[in-house]
Amino acid sequence: MVRITGVLAILVSLYIALYFSNPNALDWSTIQDVGNRQGRLGITTLGVGVLIITGAIDLSIGSVIGLASVSFGYLIEKRHMNPYLAFAAVVWGGLIIGMIHGLLITQLQLQPFLVTLCGLFVYRGLTRLVWDNTVGLNSIKTGNPDAAAAIDQLRWIFIGKDARGELLFPAEFIWLLGMALIIGLLLHFSIYGRYCYAIGYNEQASRYAGIRTTRFRFAGFVICSGLAAFSGVLLLLDLGSVMPSNSGEGEELFAITGAVLGGCSLRGGEGTVVGMIFGAMVLKVLDPLIVFAEFPDAAQKAIVGLTLLFGTLADEFFRRRATRRG
Fold this sequence. Notes:
The protein is mostly helical. The chain has 14 helices and 2 strands. α3 packs antiparallel against α4.
């Protein structure tokens, strides 16, 4: 609770700073755009957070997002697949990637760090093999007129944009809330969640207690990669075009940072869904703040790192004060 209060205070402070940087920064169009960005990162962060709670980590998420976004466009434009089927196929592909990670780590006892680091390079390479040019929705619709209506429908359902690309409502944030509800029920109100926390807190003790630790950690990898693939499709639908060379690049760092900022301990066994959402929201408020406050773009990652450090220090301060009070 202390960590959630702390990250919420940071979030409110950033919105206030955004307002004072430029009163027009909090107009409705900006709020919707920021909400969508928060929604997409939040969905990825939920998957990462579940995995971190079990005591594991996935460094390949950014490359999975890139592969998913490019594959979605490739299946429609080059394979003439129905956009709805392409959407489902890409998400299933993400789930399969999670299964591969889970099997390598739980059955062959390989380190998650090593397996997913290899995945980071493998999926980025596959992305460039699938398609080496810019993937754009306009060119896809021009080359496949029959798919245009379905693409526009998907864009409205998942992004909240009309056929002209105008944002009508922050659909990605609504999807984040829906998925957070499901993940929250799973983590905080089910046996699965209790076992995940137990495994992350002490895997060996959990195994002695009869918990099938490999099964739960395997499920964590599947959830993480599946949500990353889903986020990759959202990326193309939202931006309208992506590059195979950098699509989704660095998203793993933002998702892990959001989860940690929201209270997930990299040692495992700690974290809440509410904290993950707030952590992801903090990072995406920084983007417009950097623009409106006219910070140099090159300072973005430094500001993200300092925000995480400040959040960690604040958390440690409140944790120690709560301990002293008993």
